[in-house]
């Protein structure tokens, strides 16, 4: 065989070539089968660990389904309990509704509408603060609440009283809160006191009548500020667009002064400002702030109302006002103590002071001149700059709840 190959080199070449091809095929077969077997051993579908993980996921899903079912059952039981126990008084409301809709057995016709005037005066449906609360939130933690109603003495109760005399408790007229706010000073908005405006309940109808008159005949030449249309002069309440016109008039920096004066100047409405300091102060400091406001407004009215605030009697009344909070009463007023400025039906101003919740109210003095109390009131209610913008906005909101009701049937809604 070897001699044959030596004699024929070409045949020897072909033989060697076939041997190399056979060798390469065998080696490639071994190389391709080895990784396939190793990959098969690493396939996650054929792994026991993967099967255990699947079982764990299935158990977790089953636990979630059980918890969801328990939550649904608990919620259903809770809803059933709320409905069955009638926690919100729905059955009572339905009973009252049935009573109202059931016709009288005597055959008489019953008319729907507000309760009549049982005592000859207006029927007042009282809402004592927000959500029928006795105390109304003020917006500050120092003095957190204000009473929705207070009792103040009548002018007869202060007759013959001397400065510092105690007044009888639980006597006098009941007053309703219209709105309140916080007096702040400087650009840091440092809180000084909380102030709220109250009105005698028996005077609310007169206040409503004046608000309607001011809305129909505003003290301005701007025709857009007046309510127009058929029946405007006989209006007994204001609808939403008319209330918005009145609101804008009362907040107007130019015409608001005249509008508020038309409401409070004439006799017949008793109001009061209740003031509670949020920090320690004194009567002299409070008095100086009011005096500056009175002086500034009197000077501004020289052109519009010449002579009204420039006579000697006005100067004498200013001295009386200063004397009410004069040097004899220059002691400090700690936070939380109450000061009340009352304006009676004739415009006279009375100052009351209560040094503590469990102490009697003391009478400080009176200024009979109507102009003094009117200018003090305007410091809080009218013009471009007021003592408390928040208080004015809240008071106007309270007045809007009065004029939305028919005249003589008022819902007293505070803030």
Task: Provide a concise account of the structure shown.
With 415 residues, this protein is of the alpha+beta class.
What is the element layout, followed by pairings?
Elements: H1 2-7, H2 9-42, H3 48-85, H4 90-101, E1 123-126, E2 135-137, E3 145-147, E4 149-152, E5 173-185, E6 190-200, H5 204-216, H6 240-251, H7 256-264, E7 271-277, E8 281-282, H8 283-300, H9 312-324, E9 332-333, E10 338-343, E11 349-354, E12 362-367, H10 370-381, H11 389-403, E13 409-412
Parallel strand pairs: 1-13
Antiparallel strand pairs: 2-3, 4-5, 5-6, 6-7, 7-10, 8-9, 10-11, 11-12
Helix pairs in contact: 6-11, 8-10
Describe this structure in words.
- By secondary structure, this protein is α+β, with helices and mostly antiparallel strands.
- The strands form 4 sheets. Strands 4-5-6-7-10-11-12 form a 7-stranded antiparallel sheet. A two-stranded parallel sheet has the order 1-13.
- Helix 8 crosses helix 10.
- The longest helix is centred in the first third of the chain and has 38 residues.
